[in-house]
Design goal:
The protein is α+β, with helices and mostly antiparallel strands and 330 residues long. The protein contains seven helices and 15 strands.
Length: 330
């Protein structure tokens, strides 16, 4: 069966018409694969979490992903042993914890008149594919961000930007805090190196994780661009930040990802603030996929209408709360 690209190259010149029969024959098999392919480069957050495909093509509606074990070395640490006759007794016991993922269906639908299809150019089909790909990728990215920053349970940590400060306010990002006005954050408290270092090198390391990524809102980018420590992706060595999706640069070893999906908050004076996310991408979250993008169609002759249904099944969840630190900024 020919793909839309092959159709363009071999059987149709620009401006040629595609018949209703052509569309009906090609949409289910070809469009699903093409939407998945076109969505892949638009998905930013898949590269920042763990992906599980154990349920794809197999029975079952849930899968478990493990949390990372963590030892508090300030409390439990290696100790000296007097001699080889001294019994070594464990002073810490690690338990195995998992997070259960139960994928649910995500869908979008479109209706196209028979007349529009009969008169459509090949480029119109490409436009439809691109728009559906954007829709699928956008929904997934938003679901991942929501899962990573979800205030429940109350074991997620936030830190407040404070320009010029050497100490910072931190706390639990719970449901009450999430809806409150962040009165300590004022217009001058933009994202800067000091609060990023505090979040990544102090707060996250204390929780047993190693930060490798910071996700910022485009409006937070201006302050970083003025920092001499910021290395733009275009200037990065090949194979590092320059090759990762969504990465605009690096800062003290952290990948800097820019996305409008970053959560917003309300700061002092009722202004809109932004919540950058510092991540240990090896442990922060997971995405369990049950079914990749699937396209189904139907044609109702009485209505002269083609209906296109795009569905997929997945679920995103936070795995280790300590692997995410939120930074509240202006």
């Amino acid at each position: 069966m020919s793909s839309i690209e092959e159709l363009q190259e071999t059987t149709m010149a620009a401006g040629d018409e595609i018949s209703s029969a052509d569309i009906t024959a090609r949409i289910p098999e070809v469009w699903g694969a093409q939407i998945e392919t076109k969505a892949e480069p638009k998905r930013i957050f898949r590269g920042l979490i763990r992906i599980n495909t154990d349920l794809v093509g197999r029975p079952g509606d849930a899968v478990k992903m493990p949390r990372r074990g963590f030892i508090d070395f300030d409390t439990y640490a290696a100790t000296d042993v007097a001699d080889d006759l001294t019994e070594i007794s464990p002073n810490v016991e690690l338990t195995y914890e998992t997070v259960t993922f139960t994928p649910t269906e995500s869908a979008m639908a479109a209706a196209i008149t028979k007349e529009a299809i009969e008169e459509a150019m090949v480029s119109l089909i490409d436009d439809a594919l691109n728009e559906m790909a954007i829709g699928v990728a956008s929904k997934e990215d938003q679901d991942i961000v929501t899962a990573l920053s979800l205030p429940q349970p109350a074991d997620l940590t936030y830190i407040e930007a404070d320009t010029g400060a050497t100490t910072f306010v931190t706390g639990a990002w719970d449901a009450a805090q999430a809806v409150a006005i962040q009165t300590n954050v004022v217009a001058a408290d933009v994202l800067d190196l000091s609060v990023i270092v505090e979040a990544s090198e102090v707060v996250m390391e204390t929780q047993g994780f190693n930060a490798d990524t910071i996700v910022i809102h485009p409006r937070q980018k201006a302050s970083l661009l003025r920092d001499d420590n910021f290395l733009k992706a275009a200037d990065s060595p090949t194979g590092t930040a320059a090759t990762a999706k969504g990465v605009i640069g690096t800062l003290f070893g952290l990948r800097v990802v820019s996305s409008q999906r970053v959560p917003t908050i309300t700061i002092s004076g009722g202004a809109t603030g932004y919540q950058a996310m510092v991540l240990d991408s090896t442990a922060a979250g997971g995405l369990a996929i049950k079914r990749p993008v699937t396209v189904e169609t139907e044609y109702l002759p009485a209505k002269r209408m083609h209906y296109i249904y795009v569905t997929t099944m997945y679920q995103a969840k936070r795995l280790n709360p300590g692997a995410v630190v939120l930074i509240n900024t202006a």
